[in-house]
Amino acid sequence: MARQNEKTKGNRFPAPPSSRHFATAEASNIKAFEAICSQAATAEEYPLAATIQRNRGALQDEWYRFLISGPGVFVTKRLYRDRRLIEAANAAFASVIEQERESGAAAKGDHFASAGKNDRSWNSFGKHGLADPASFVEYYSNPATVYRITAQVNNTKPGASPQVCHRDYHVGFQTAEAAAQIPRAMQVASQLLTLQGAVAHSDVPLESGPTRVLPFSQTFEPGYVAYRRPEFNAFFLGNHVSLPLENKTADVYRMANLLQISSPFGKPMESVDAVPLIEKRWDHLVTLYEARGLDDEVKAFVAAAAEGYPFPTNLDSNPPRNEGMAPESEQDNITTSLTENRTREEAVEALKKFVARSVA
What we know:
The chain is an alpha+beta fold. Among the domains are: 83-210 and 245-262, no CATH class; 274-357, no CATH class. It contains 15 helices and four strands. The protein has a four-stranded antiparallel β-sheet with strand order 1-2-4-3.
């Protein structure tokens, strides 16, 4: 404790380094990076892995440690137990991809592959909701509150090239020069704003090139500045935990729905318009509500479809409510429409008016 007090000088946080930016020497310390990534996760550290049953809080605590200071990546099996749901989502994705191909919208490429190499559909979240409202409701009714989710479906074709070594959204989308100018505290904090995941929508054999990851590398603080350096890329290529993301097969199309689950305190990767989604599936949502009330699944769906964090807003026309300091959110508006038994037209009109008065 004495050492800790000496380091923090009575403050909650340690004294910051002399420079607010990562120094070149820190970002090029490959030995420190190698030591971090040479760690091994043990069953003693994460005892609930593969054994947890009906103990959500303890499981969340373990996942938290896994992501913050542990390997930084884990795989869960059978979170979607109904294969029919995955097949329905696949059909919706196939329809969207085909429509975009016919319209020419598919010829845009993505972060790592040029146009035509893979089938990438941006905002698969919103497009799924419009293409198949019933499966969309079931697919995204997962428990949480004010998070914001966006998604992009990616169908990797046979012969596709592997991804390059990279760090992802937010700071990973900046140039090396821009990233170097972001203060170190913000670089570290930004990692906590978006959780990236993926749902496998097909079998993913190793020869089809599943994602390469480097456990523990997220704990290397200068990582956003360092990952482009050749020595870090070489270490990654020699130590990642799966085969290269290169589909070497002749006939396996590897499909995954990539999820970006954002904290309400950060900016999501894509914008989501709740109005057409609610309009398209209001009747289905009402049916669920009439059968179950505001149960976990109904609340979870509303949380996925609409914004739960009420800021930014126009506080003149959407002031804080009497029961708290926060104004009304999209989720509050939709929940009110449910509990007041509004028709689809009434609910959509109420949501449109809310969105309009939230703008300055």
